[in-house]
Amino acid sequence: MSDQELAVTPLNALHRELGGKMVPFAGYDMPVQFPAGILKEHLHTRSAAGLFDVSHMGQAWLIAEDGADPAIAFESLVPADVQSLEPGQQRYSQLLNDTGGILDDLMVTRPIAALGRDRLYLVVNAACKDQDLPLIAKALKGRIRVEPLEDRALIALQGPKASGVAARLFGPALATMPFMSQTVVEFDGIDLWISRSGYTGEDGYEISVPNDQAEALARLLLGDPAVEPIGLGARDSLRLEAGLCLYGHDIDTTTSPIEAGLLWSIGKRRLAEGGFPGAEIVQKQIAEGATRKRVGILPDGRAPAREGTLILDADGGSEIGQITSGGFGPTVGGPVAMGYVPIDYAKPGTPVFLSVRGKSLPATITKMPFVPPGFFRG
């Protein structure tokens, strides 16, 4: 795809001004790194605060057309308990197909009353939004109207110093707002929709801001000495260390939430009642156990095991699985990876081998995340 065909976010000019190395990603011109480099950007986010442009993600309203709670209709497509969300609460879930495969993972929020009592706020992956939103609109026609929020950018502020930065700029209430909650802050005449969430394993916020104010807000945040711009490269290594799935790699239409270790995201009521695509398969996997599982893998030595690397058993060198994400973990100080193995090999401490550049290198199945989570717990 040529530069002329790539979409740009409202922060594109700022990325270039800051020396961002731009690459195509999900149809957008995005910074993979800045002059500091991926390693320093990663470590800065773990120790201070990193600013990420996630405006390529798909934001949308799901607005009830039948007068009922929009969560009732949306639950016919996802396994999360959406109905129990209070205003300002947010939840992680997945769009599933009829075989329990994952079409996409997403965040759904019941917004505070000031934004509307008849709607849900949705954030979906950039590479999937052009399929997700029409799918939802078609499946829920007459019950839900889908309104893409193409006039808003999305900025993530992540790291242990993010709450201090947010409290200084937007008010002290930001420091104590609960994890996985959303509020609206009026700042300099702008309505900012701020959620305490992110995808780095650290405390932080995602801020939805009108497109025409996004650059000014980013510059303001970068004016704090704790904040540095962070590209896609460090975003990927941060989420890998946090044991978080990347859609199209660690989860896709061939993986179920149970195989992926995402049972925690399915509501107990939903498990009992079903009523979502693939429910019978998901319920069966819970009752009888899945045949394979996503696991963490720690390679011995320093050689990273990339996506597609074969996982071999420790006995005869037979192939048992593949790495779905892998690379160097700057916080860990060595290579980390995740992938799928048969359930008999999924116990932490199980020795395996990895086929790296024609060599069988030893590795060990381990628990995830690879680094302790820094989420705010109140």
Provide the fold topology.
Blueprint: H1 12-17, E1 21-25, E2 28-33, H2 38-47, E3 49-53, E4 58-64, H3 70-74, E5 89-96, E6 102-110, E7 119-124, H4 129-139, E8 144-148, E9 152-158, H5 162-170, H6 173-176, E10 182-187, E11 190-195, E12 204-210, H7 211-222, E13 227-229, H8 232-241, H9 268-273, H10 279-288, E14 292-299, E15 310-313, E16 319-329, E17 334-342, E18 351-356, E19 359-366
Parallel strand pairs: 3-13
Antiparallel strand pairs: 1-2, 3-9, 4-7, 4-8, 5-6, 6-7, 9-12, 10-11, 11-12, 14-17, 14-19, 15-16, 15-18, 16-17, 18-19
Helix pairs in contact: 2-8
If you had to describe this structure to a student in words, what would you say it looks like?
It is built from ten helices and 19 strands. The model has no long low-confidence stretch (mean pLDDT 97). Strand 18 and strand 19 (359-366) form a beta hairpin. It is α+β, with helices and mostly antiparallel strands and 378 residues long. Helix 2 (38-47) packs across helix 8 (232-241). The termini are far apart. It has helices spanning 12-17, 38-47, 70-74, 129-139, 162-170, 173-176, 211-222, 232-241, 268-273, 279-288; strands at 21-25, 28-33, 49-53, 58-64, 89-96, 102-110, 119-124, 144-148, 152-158, 182-187, 190-195, 204-210, 227-229, 292-299, 310-313, 319-329, 334-342, 351-356, 359-366. A six-stranded mixed beta sheet has the order 10-11-12-9-3-13.
